[in-house]
Write a structure and sequence with these properties.
The complex is a heterodimer. Chain A has no helices and nine strands. Chain A is mostly beta strands. In chain A, strands 1-9-8-3-4 form a five-stranded mixed beta sheet, with no helix packed on it. Chain A has a four-stranded antiparallel beta sheet with strand order 2-7-6-5, with no helix packed on it. Chain A is globular and about 40 Å long. Chain B is an all-beta fold. In chain B, the strands form two sheets. In chain B, strands 2, 4, 5, 6, 9, 10 and 11 form a seven-stranded mixed beta sheet that branches. Chain B is globular, with a radius of gyration of 13 Å. Classes of the chains: A mainly beta, B mainly beta. Chains A and B meet through β3 and β4 of A and β4, β5, β9 and β10 of B.
Chain lengths: 109, 113
């Protein structure tokens, strides 16, 4: 699976959009981009995934660049409960998810 | 909303003892997984399981580990002879199909003394 690069941490103001970047320059054509988050040692929580097209669900939006070398997870209106570690994972034909260090997002009131 | 459950939430055991961690995956899911997270470290994949067989395993998943689906609802991880370094949070996950999104349980904290 392709390696991902995320900033180690970022702050966000409550009520504002949080834009979380991820670089995956070695992604190959059949690999998906997945986003998970982990709130304080709880089990990782699935957020969203995509292949080429932008995706949106009730939690977030995923914007993937046309060359697929990077993506951005958007939390449209961050709340204090969105404080978590966010993981960007590129996944091909494996069953496993390979977690990195992720981005620690702190939402401030 | 269906969820993955795990028991116990915390297990303390002595080095050399056997432990069994239990998970109830989401009922219509066919693929099951175990991950672990040592305190302060990354979440690491251990094993995936489908149709009563291991489909993929990591280097961590050595002969000390085994998995089983003893009935139609439970999925277990057994560690035969625990070591201090097995102390970690163990997460069970399930997915409807093999490459779908995985849904994680709340974890079992295993402490080996």
């Amino acid at each position: 699976d392709a390696k991902t690069t995320q900033p180690p941490s970022m702050d966000c103001a409550e009520g504002r959009a949080a834009n979380l970047p991820c670089n995956h320059s070695t992604i190959s054509g059949n690999e998906y981009v997945y986003w998970y988050r982990q709130i304080h040692s709880q089990g990782p929580q699935y957020i969203i995934h995509g292949l080429k097209n932008n995706e949106t669900n009730e939690m977030a939006s995923l914007i993937i660049t046309e060359d697929r070398k990077s993506s951005t997870l958007i939390l449209p209106h961050a709340t204090l409960r969105d404080t978590a570690v966010y993981y960007c994972i590129v996944r091909g034909n494996d069953y496993k998810l390979s977690f990195g260090a992720g981005t620690t997002v702190t939402v401030r009131a | 909303e269906p969820e993955v459950t795990q028991t116990p939430s915390h297990q303390v055991t002595q080095m050399g003892q056997e432990v069994i961690l239990r998970c109830v995956p989401i009922s219509n899911h066919l693929y099951f997984y175990w991950y672990r997270q040592i305190l302060g470290q990354k979440v690491e994949f251990l094993v995936s399981f489908y149709n009563n067989e291991i489909s993929e395993k990591s280097e961590i998943f050595d002969d000390q580990f085994s998995v089983e689906r003893p009935d139609g609802s439970n999925f277990t991880l057994k560690i035969r002879s625990t070591k201090l370094e097995d102390s970690a949070m163990y997460f069970c996950a399930s997915s409807e199909w093999g490459r779908d999104e995985q849904y994680f349980g709340p974890g079992t904290r295993l402490t080996v003394t």
